[in-house]
Write a structure and sequence with these properties.
- There is one protein chain.
- This protein is mainly alpha-helical.
- It folds into 2 domains: about 70 residues, no CATH class; about 140 residues.
- Helices cover about 60% and strands about 10% of the residues.
- The protein is built from 8 helices and 5 strands.
- It has a 3-stranded antiparallel sheet with strand order 1-3-2. It has a two-stranded antiparallel ribbon with strand order 4-5.
- Helix 5 packs across helix 6 and helix 7 runs antiparallel to helix 8.
- Keywords: Membrane, Transmembrane, Transmembrane helix.
Length: about 250
């Protein structure tokens, strides 16, 4: 249906009319033709000033028509094709955001790995210096222990002292080697194991106080390694859950 400045006639009505469509509708030569439900529909615009914008807007474009039963149908001009919608930028934006987030995470993890390796290097230097000092001044240390524990023989005290040095060197080698392997692999479970070993090494310094070998610096360095390894474990687990990566969970 059309009101105001336009009229709608079908080809069936035009055929039944006694006069040509051009006589009934002088502006039919300027009318717009479309098809709705296999029926040719002509939208005829009256020569009014208000009809000019509507005529220009509807020529060559589909229109909606109201049928007698109240339903709406779409009239499409011959050869009309729907315009393809513009491509959405969302996938590219999401991909760019994911790439940016991944690059940022890689930078953060690389920075933490460098700091962790620096912490291990400091411990290596400290352990080597202190153990070299204990080996060099072992006779004086054994003499002091014999004065502290007069009931023990000097040979037994010397054996225990040298055993502690050997055990400390062996533990430092295994502990620092495990730390390097953990940093190279970069898996949460490996950091969890290293944190356990670092905590054991920190607590292992306490019995050495009976041999005058307790080192507060080594104790805190190992405890910091334990805390840092726990932090790395939680960080990698969170990243694995975020990106659904089974290797990081």
């Amino acid at each position: 249906s059309a009101r105001g400045s336009s009229e709608i006639v079908t080809s069936a009505e035009a055929t039944r009319a006694s006069s040509p469509i051009a006589r009934r509708h002088p502006l039919l030569s300027r009318a717009s033709c479309c098809r709705a439900n296999s029926v040719d529909v002509y939208i005829v615009f009256k020569a009014t000033s208000r009809a000019q914008p509507m005529e220009k807007a509807l020529v060559g474009r589909p229109v909606f028509l109201e049928q007698p039963d109240g339903s709406l149908v779409q009239g499409v001009p011959p050869g009309y094709k729907e315009e393809s919608p513009p491509p959405t930028p969302r996938p590219s934006q999401v991909f760019d955001a994911a790439v940016a987030a991944s690059s940022d995470l890689v930078k953060v993890l690389a920075r933490h790995e460098v700091m962790f390796l620096a912490l291990l290097f400091v411990q290596l230097v400290a352990d080597c210096l202190f153990e070299a000092m204990h080996i060099r001044y072992r006779e004086d240390a054994i003499a002091e222990l014999c004065m502290i524990y007069p009931g023990l023989s000097p040979n037994f005290v010397a054996t225990i002292y040298m055993t502690s040095i050997f055990g400390e060197c062996l533990f430092c080698g295994m502990y620092l080697g495990l730390g390097i392997v953990v940093v190279c692999r970069g898996k949460p479970r490996a950091y969890h194991r290293l944190s356990t070993v670092a905590l054991a090494g920190s607590l292992g310094q306490l019995p050495l106080a009976y041999l005058n070998r307790f080192n507060l610096l080594v104790f805190f360095l190992r405890f910091i390694t334990y805390a840092y390894a726990r932090f790395q474990w939680n960080l990698l687990r969170g990243i694995g859950l975020l990106f659904q990566d089974p290797l990081l969970t």
